[in-house]
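Dear support,

I submitted the protein below through the web form. The confirmation email said the job was done, but the results page showed an empty box. After a refresh the structure appeared. I'm attaching both so you can tell me whether what I see now is the final result or a partial one.
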Amino acid sequence: MQVRVNPEYCKGCGLCVLVCPRGILKEGSELTEKGYVPPLVASPEKCANWKRKDKKKAVCEMCVLTCPDHAMEWDESKGGAEV
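What the results page shows now:
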């Protein structure tokens, strides 16, 4: 499972980058059509949920819970082996 940023909702506040305990997110550099700069998922393999396949078993959701615009979401098709 991999966290991803939905650029249609993200306003580039950077809160997800600040709260991530493992530093998987970093500040982005590309503008969206709306003029915002969403963060990049730089090191997805460092995420505590990387090897999980089901978001119901997520152990850390700091970025998802902190995002005021609900722009962080889980992509269950990405990640490692079942845990």
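Response: this is the final, complete result; the empty box was a page-load delay. The chain has a mean pLDDT of 90.
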